[in-house]
């Protein structure tokens, strides 16, 4: 049976891959034939999250690309993260997926207005509670 969307895109840092990321990818893949993941650069993470990733962007690209639910992954520039229409030059996605923590954010309101004109949908999935790269970093190890 054909899925609702043809090419889906989701974008994030995806450092220290965890079940919250896997839930997102698996939910995305249920709705599109091909799932493309945009991996944010180390520079983006430092600038926007004030965190240097444990795995660098090339390593995160390799790890995410190896997942069964992901069809392809690519590193996206800071400009592409800020203005996701720029990614259309490299990938003709018809839906953008995100975790619900971004719902209602200024960035997504702007993206929504741009995408409405292009006929691209935005779909949010519930954020997986209780796990994030940040709290993994802080978990006691012994
Ligand atoms: N995500 C999710 N559930 C989680 C963690 C992340 O659905 N528990 C989703 C986010 O909503 C986003 C994508 O995964 O769409 C990438 O999130 P990212 O910022 O890389 O992951 P976090 O674990 O939230 O990282 P951090 O703690 O550094 O913010």
Detailed description of the structure:
This protein has helices spanning 19-31, 42-49, 57-65, 78-82, 106-118, 133-138, and strands at 5-12, 32-40, 72-76, 95-99, 121-125. With 142 residues, the protein is of the alpha/beta class. Strand 4 (95-99), helix 5 and strand 5 form a beta-alpha-beta unit. The relative contact order is 0.21. The model has no long low-confidence stretch (mean pLDDT 96). Cytidine-5'-triphosphate binds at residues 12-14, 20-21, 24, 49, 51, 98-99, 101-102, 127-128, 131-134.
Keywords:
single chain, 142 residues, alpha/beta, Rossmann fold, 23% strand
Number of strands: 5
Distance between the termini: 47 Å
Attached small molecules: cytidine-5'-triphosphate
DSSP helical segment count: 6
CATH class call: Alpha Beta
What characteristic shape results from the CA principal axes? globular
Mean pLDDT: 96
What is the percent of helical residues? 25-40%
H/E element sequence? EHEHHEHEHEH
CATH superfamily: HUPs
Q: Please tell me the total number of domains.
A: 1
Largest sheet: 5 strands, parallel
CATH architecture: 3-Layer(aba) Sandwich
Give the strand order of the largest sheet, numbering strands 1, 2, ... along the chain. 3-2-1-4-5
Tell me the β content. Answer: 15-25%
Protein structure class: alpha/beta
**CATH topology-level name:** Rossmann fold
Query: C-alpha Rg, in Å?
Result: 15 Å
Spans with pLDDT under 50 lasting ≥5 residues?
A: none
